[in-house]
Amino acid sequence: MLLRKVSHFLYSRKFGERVIALLVGLILGISLILLALRGFNFREVLFFVAAIFVVLTAIVMWDLKRFLLIFVVIDISLNIDVLVGKTTIGRGSTIDGFSISLIVLALVVLYGLWFLEGTFLSKEKSFSFRSRGPIEVMSVFFLFTTLFSLLHTTDLILSLYMIWIYLFCFLLYFYISHHANTPYLLEYILLLLLGGLLFQVLVMELQMMDLIGHSYTGTDRRVPGTLGHPNLAGGYLIQAISILYVCLYLKIDRYKKLMIVILLFISVHSLIVGTQSRGSIIAFFISFVVMTILAFWKHWLTLRSLVGGLIVLLLIIPFFVEPIVTRFTEDDQGAADARGPLNEIAWSMVEQNPITGVGVNNFKLVIDNFIEPEQFGKYINTVHNGWMLIWSETGTLGFLAYCGLMCVFVLRTFNLIRRGHPRYSVIALGVLGSTVAIMIYMLVEIFIRRHLISFVWLNIGLVEAMIYLERQDRNHLSNKL
Hints:
Blueprint: H1 2-10, H2 13-38, H3 42-61, H4 64-78, E1 81-84, E2 98-101, H5 102-121, H6 134-148, H7 156-179, H8 183-208, H9 230-246, H10 254-275, H11 278-297, H12 303-316, H13 318-329, H14 339-352, H15 363-366, H16 386-419, H17 424-441, H18 450-480
Antiparallel strand pairs: 1-2
Helix pairs in contact: 1-5, 2-3, 3-4, 4-5, 4-8, 4-18, 5-7, 6-7, 6-16, 7-18, 8-9, 8-10, 9-10, 9-11, 9-17, 9-18, 11-17, 14-16, 16-17, 16-18, 17-18
């Protein structure tokens, strides 16, 4: 009885207001003290303003679960975390600590609330969930193969760092797939995604204008936003821009579409001119073509709109030709040429450890054991191919599990697009474009950073939630008939 009363209080408006009031005081107070002690700079003021905005939003909405979802989704863009147990043994290009991020902290509370809701507040008195069939089977199988690779790992702690990321990404997918169960919550999550994109591109544009600093130390004029490296920023942008692009096909008024077009132009400018990531640019172009063809096939894009879009595209191309040509023709100091030898090294790891791989997050640690004499002097780093990295570190079982997961995900997303729902199918097109882009990106870039992996698993959760919502709509229509 006491636990039931406590649970009802946790879900009450009074509790939500008190928690948010406490958070307001802590965030504003600590931020002001830190800024006063260290001195003000433009970047810190920008983050401080963003923090105030988030808190004020929470005061207005007061709903604790929706408030926590802000941190879950926005943190994919902010990429704010603390590495616990940080070590230098990984020598860079590895995950070298347990990532305690806003996503992790928010998910802990959200799962706690879900447990209380299912145990003490619902009529069924159970912590229940809906089965997601093949997606759940493949995702659990992939997690199992990462654990299986521990049998042959060189450094267990390094492997656990990466497995920790995979684990909370799975929990992110699982939570979203079960709780984005109303059209309102789905739109809310999408707005948070687009809000994160807006924040990221504004930061990048300010960095390009030298109004705020950044951590990237390269000699070129590339900027990383808040994501540490331009290539990592490119991987994030191609996923977010794909979802933004398909919003043009939703049934919304012209004013909103104009806002989307403006944000789309700024985002593409940040991608091409800001990151100058060749892999990201190619991936985005292919994804854009795929989404446009499918939209035309489903009659969401009319011939008239297609011709108009092509004319606009021809008008804005001059803004991007010079940075693209420069980036693809300038001397990259052997970065592109080194990808071939790195793939060869990864294949050697697969040949010698075909079942378990060399252990998750251990590629850079053991690379010296697989370098051939002719490869000395090359750019030696973690392989810039996410697919080969998974194969070499988790073995053939892990590689097949991940490929199977992505294939099932793409097929389920395409089937949702094919059904032609005016809302969910359109959003699914954006998720498909996002997935195509990141799958191509993985061919030429390292794929171990949590904000990129989190985005993929968030997309999986969104599609599973939309499949459920679309089925609910069909059942509702059938009952009416």
